[in-house]
Amino acid sequence: MKTLKIFLALVALSTGVANAQFTKAELQVSGLTCSMCSKATEKSLRTLGFIGDIKADLNRNVFVLTFKNNARVNLDQINKKVQGAGFSVSNLKATFNFANVKITDNQFNYGGENYRIVSPLNKMPEGLATFTVVNKGFAPASVYKKYSSAFAGDAKAGKVYHITI
Amino acid sequence: MKFIGLLAAAVLATANCLWAQELYVNTEPASNMATHSLGIRAENQGFFNPVFKNRSTLELMYGFSKHLMVHGSLYKSNFYQADQRVEGGSVYAKYRFLSVDSVQSHFRGAVFGKFSRINNGVYNQEINLEGDNSGYQAGLVFTKLAHKLAISGSASYLRALNNGAYHLIPGNARDAVGYTLSAGYLLFPKTYESYDQVNVNLYVELLGKTNPGYQQSYLDVAPAIQFIFDSVLRVDLSYRAPLYNNMIRNSNNMYLVRVEYNIFNLFN
Questions:
Q1: What is the DSSP string of chain A?
Q2: A15, B187, B199, B265: which could join B228 in a potential S-S bond, CB 3.0 to 4.6 Å?
Q3: Over the stretch B61-120, which tens digit does the pLDDT of each residue have?
Q4: Do residues B118 and B133 lie in contact, with contact meaning Cβ atoms separated by under 8 Å?
Q5: Which residues of B touch A86 (CB under 8 A)?
Q6: Tally of CA atoms within 13 A in the half-sphere of B226 that contains its CB
């Protein structure tokens, strides 16, 4: 029985994770000035398995990423692909389904990674909501410095994304 | 020098009211290619006086990481004999150590090095690692792109080695200093709508070399036009002519025609 309970708990947990998911993200890239650079960046992003489609706004240097259903999205990998193409992420605004997400002390877990809401505090987003990542490497210096005091509260181990809603 | 100052000012003024580009034709910017991208270049340079002579270059470029890219080139020409023959090759590496990005602008810095192995007789005072001399080169390049203005400057040191059995001319310089200043701007499209739009870029580059202690130097101006098709195929046309020259080289005036094709994400 104990094994079955653990199994059921795991199923429930994984269902919860499946509900909590990213649907899309608006990614603004710094340093891009030519369509060749944009194409290299888009092609690089397309190699990520969790990305379903990409629409590029070449004038604003914005890529709208649509994620595959139930695929586990890793924001760091998006950042790595942009940097690999020779550029940097200037802004990443993700649309996330908060249904069944347990937020404790302004923190929640998704895909084994921690997310900390740094602004506004103690507000519980429900359903579909967008958030912006303000970690170093995801936002301009002025933005991540503004929220840098929140980094002190992070656990030593593992990645913690700082987000504003 | 006054003329160069005026020219630089004119370039800055023109570039200031348009979008900038840094895919320079006669120099390399501090920026690198995308990681795991392969660029294939076929190039022809030549002159018509006193007789038509030309050199073809096959160049492969690869982005190893966001910091490091490498080029490998093979040279073939009839500069030193009546018929075309393979002259040797070179390898070039560029390491980007500085990158300050914001939307539609950036400042980058890189160090670069080149080594060439050439099997030609040595007749020129110019030390040129693109087909004429065996040797090595090390330098620094900085590129500033600010939405409407792309300026790049480089300085390098060159050292000539004997071309195998062909020795350097006694009394000729073995060391040289190279310097470049490049500006580029995007002429078309005025507004980006898709990757299929043909890009037209205009460039003006100043290319200089000096043999320190020998009072030999030149400064060329090289205007260029560039077309980019489908965001992957690039066609470059350029012509270089001296603003100043007292150095013996193959020719003072040279045309350049180049086709470059880019393959993104060769390996993942």
A1: -HHHHHHHHHHHHHHHHHHS-EEEEEEEEES--SHHHHHHHHHHHHTSTTEEEEEEETTTTEEEEEEPTTPPP-HHHHHHHHHHTT-EEEEEEEEEE-TT---BTTEEEETTEEEEEEESTT----SEEEEEE-SBTTB-HHHHHHTGGGGGGS-SSS-EEEEE-
A2: B199
A3: 999 998 999 999 999 999 999 999 999 999 999 999 998 877 667 899 999 999 999 999
A4: yes
A5: 31-35, 63, 66, 96
A6: 29
Chain B residues near any Cβ of chain A (below 8 Å)? 19-23, 31-37, 63, 65-66, 96, 99, 101-106, 145, 147, 150, 186, 191-195, 197, 199, 228, 231-232, 234, 262, 264-265, 268
Are B199 and A56 inside 8 Å of each other by CB? no
Chain B partners within 8 Å of A39 (Cβ):
195, 231-232, 264
Angle ∠(B15,B18,B23) on CA atoms, nearest 5 = 70
**Contact indicator for B57, B72 with CB cutoff of 8 Å:** no
* ipTM metric: 0.76
Q: pLDDT tens-digit profile of B130-187? A: 999 999 999 999 999 876 678 999 999 999 999 988 999 888 999 999 999 999 988 8
Quote the DSSP letter at residue B251.
-
Instruction: Transcribe B176-191 into DSSP letters.
Output: EEEEEEEEEEEEE-SS
Q: Which residue of A has its CA nearest to B144?
A: A31
